Amino acid sequence: MKKYFFIILLILVTASASSYVYAEKAADPSGVTTGNASDVTAVKAGQPTLDEVAAQAGHNKVAINMVWLLITGFLVMFMQAGFAMVETGLTRAKNVAHTMSMNMMVYALGMIGFFISGFAIMFGGVGSLGTLGGFGGLANELTINLFGHTFGLIGMKGFFLTGTYDVAVFGLFLFQMVFMDTTATIPTGSMAERWKFSHFAIYGILVGAIIYPIYGNWVWGGGWLSQLGNMFGLGHGVVDFAGSSVVHMTGGVLAFVGAVLIGPRLGKYNKDGSPNAIPGHNIPMAVIGCFILAFGWFGFNPGSTLAGGDLRISVIAVNTMIASATGAFASMLYMWLFKTKKPDPSMMINGMLAGLVAITAPCAFVTVQSAALIGLISGVLVIEAAFFIEKKLKVDDPVGAVAVHGVNGAWGMIALGLFADGTYGDGWNGVKGTVTGLFYGDASQFFAQVIGVTTNIIYVAAIGWVVFKLISLVTGGMRVSAKDELEGLDVPEMGTEGYAGIKLDKNSETPLSH
Amino acid sequence: MKKIEAIIRTSKFNEVKEALREVGIDFFSYWDATGVGNEIEKGEHSYRGTVYDTSFISRQLLTIVVREVNVQKTVDAILKAAKTGVIGDGKIFISDIIESYRIRNDEKGDTSLYNKD
């Protein structure tokens, strides 16, 4: 017995002794003594020189920015799930595998397109990445000279991310890629329930490779729209903080063009042009998707500072939040009091998202009261726009993608031109002074915004139309056959039912048009 | 032997089941049925600004196979329990059954329709 007791005692003493030998710092439950001069990278550990402290401070500044950029980028990536849930919840059960697959694959396909050429076109000439350490290799912009000015058209550096093996570039690539994917997934909503998967798949690559990045270069990549201030004195050029036009208008206009070309769903419109309701099959899914999007927007907007050390992020986050609330509130009241006398869940979802889209451009530049008002207006605007598109233009948009992203993206750009209050944005797009809107004394910013909106509509509609038509030549059309559409796209297009084992009442899901 | 098919309101199903049990009818099958008929839709549906009615009337269809001696009391029980007096209460249909078998022990005829205990 005694022998075993001593062996065990010996083992215990040895174990505690070895841990004691390797400990250099005492345990710190309060956190007060953890992190001190000995953590500064220095030749003499614990005695850094002033230069070493300065280097550490600079490194930490960039580190905060990099971590912020990546974490917010991860949040925006999760918005893909939000879009998938909103779109699938607001469409029919017989199509879920197809709708979900589009939303799932657009993430991968768009990323591939962006990797191949999208990032290079959009940011190949953006210049120095100031918040992330100042890498200056993205300096190849294709320009033309007109009227004595240099118009930046597209970037030409970084195809397949070659020649740009720098940590800042990679951080920027991830962040910008998830924004591109937000655009890419918007048309899958307006064209759902009848879009041929092969046509969609080719679109998925091209939207990331060509359509999105060209306008993106013009506004965010140092291209000509961003230089309207420098060249022609129009405010700070086209200003779009987090992408009301770059992301949402591009997606919304593409969604509109696609919905027009693909035509309405069978049974949607009667011969006299009046629309039939085709209710979504899963409101809970749609609401959860809306919250995932609202959560992801906390990455979308505040992350667009590209800098965690830019403390305007708190203002941006609150502006974002308040606009989402007033947007949902306005939509709820508008439907309840003035339209169908019931607070329609899918319209409340559209209202929250419309508020978020509309605040995306101005979020860094407006007061919170303005943000609340912008959201309030967008809540009414989205409903009127959805009705106009569905009832007057007779374009079938199952989820309201055009009204939410296209129309409110434009409103967000205009709102920036009106409400920017001049407390932020000094030096934006190379123009001295803070970003100021019409109501605070600078009408030229408003004009720049109008030019941006108009350019986006013309460019995206034109290139969208051409690309959709070209893809149709390859795939033999955009739309599935009538038989497949009535049966449900899951088995003919995807080979498998989304809800295998659950009996669906497919007849009741499709209204008779008469 | 007769088959009694009763189309009743879904809200009346539990009452009818209880009433049948009180008169000794403990065995029947039932289906969810959708119908077309005269009932006016009470609530209006609306979705994204378009008002519509489903024009689907939801009912339960009970199928009860009974011996001759039990037909009238079954019908009376259903009539009493399923009635609300409003259009749409439903219908009862009676038809002949030619033969009946119990699968467990191959009994046929009237004895297959009840337990001798």
Please characterize this protein's 3D structure.
The complex is a heterodimer of chains A (514) and B (117). Chain A is mainly α. Chain A has a single domain, classed as Ammonium transporter fold (Orthogonal Bundle), CATH 1.10.3430. Helices cover 61% and strands 3% of the residues of chain A. Chain A has helices spanning 2-22, 50-89, 96-123, 167-185, 187-190, 197-220, 228-232, 244-262, 283-300, 313-338, 345-360, 368-392, 401-419, 443-475, 482-487, 490-494, 506-509; strands at 141-146, 149-155. In chain A, strands 1-2 form a two-stranded antiparallel sheet. In chain A, strand 1 (141-146) and strand 2 form a beta hairpin. Chain B is of the alpha+beta class and 117 residues long. The radius of gyration of chain B is 18 Å and the shape is elongated. Classes of the chains: A mainly alpha (514), B alpha+beta (117). The A-B interface holds A 275-280, 335, 339-340, 342, 344, 346-347, 383, 386-387, 390-391, 400, 508, 511 and B 45-52, 54, 56.
